[in-house]
């Protein structure tokens, strides 16, 4: 795991007593010219904790917790073990309006009209049921939804010996949780879940799952007609002051499947596509290789402004 820069941040957090801080999903927008929000923090695990429990409490997904803590047992971190909370983000390189969901990051960003930013972990489509890369809007909002499984899902469950009813009424057993937001892409939703495990993973039939408190909070803020962009950016570049940061995640291909592309080539192409980087930054290419290889999902400094 990379420790340069991160170690200083974690030490500062520990000194401030933030290892037990209660996270919020809301962050202030960065100052003009800056692209990073949040701070990496520490959490001291209790005996009964798992990454799924910690993630639920801290608005983090399972896989991002694993990536940030590669040498800790996700199911039994151990009492007193310091767990990294990867709550620092480079904002996606798209217009900062509406909802942006980054598949490779398993994360949703909502840019509120009041100037605040909310970010939440999401579950996305699993192999064979990929979530799409597209642009759409929220066309309907439904509290306490019922669920009518489509024929494709009914068939899949029947063949697996786990038949589903033709209709699941609202309630604690409903896979859509307490709220659903229907997207303009036929068959796709942003919704809650009746399962404790799976947020921040590739688990759905293409829809976007959220923790129930998160989906309720988001639904209360976003009106019908809100713009939604679904992107797939495993690598993000951003400035904070005179420092250039790179955030690396495991790439997925355009269909949400694990990618076998040349990761370093992807990053090189990203850097070359940014004139603010090619014209203004002195890059440490050894650091770039380290960040790409580790893929912790935590922004790391890879260069400075000329």
Explain what the structure shows.
The protein has helices at residues 6-15, 51-58, 62-68, 151-159, 212-221, 263-272, 275-278, 285-294, and strands at 26-28, 36-38, 41-44, 82-85, 88-90, 98-102, 107-111, 116-121, 124-125, 134-143, 179-183, 189-191, 202-204, 208-209, 227-231, 235-240, 243-248, 281-283, 300-305. Strands 1-8-7-6-15-10-11-12-14 form a nine-stranded mixed sheet, with helices on one face. Strands 16-17-19-18 form a four-stranded antiparallel sheet. A two-stranded antiparallel sheet has the order 2-5. It has eight helices and 19 strands. A hairpin with a 4-residue loop joins β6 (98-102) and β7.
CATH superfamily of the largest domain: L,D-transpeptidase catalytic domain-like
Structural class, from secondary structure content? alpha+beta
How many independent structural domains?
Answer: 3
Order of helices and strands: HEEEHHEEEEEEEHEEEEHEEEHHEHE
Provide the spatial order of strands within the biggest beta sheet.
1-8-7-6-15-10-11-12-14
Spatial separation of the terminal alpha carbons: 28 Å
What is the beta-strand fraction? 25-35%
Number of strands: 19
Q: Percent of residues in helical segments?
A: 10-25%
**CATH arch. level architecture of the largest domain:** Beta Barrel
Number of helices: 8
CATH topology of the largest domain: L,D-transpeptidase catalytic domain-like
Report the principal-axis shape: globular
Can you give the mean pLDDT? 86
Unreliable spans are 1-23
> Main sheet, how many strands, which sense, barrel?
9 strands, mixed
Q: Can you tell me the CATH class of the largest domain?
A: Mainly Beta
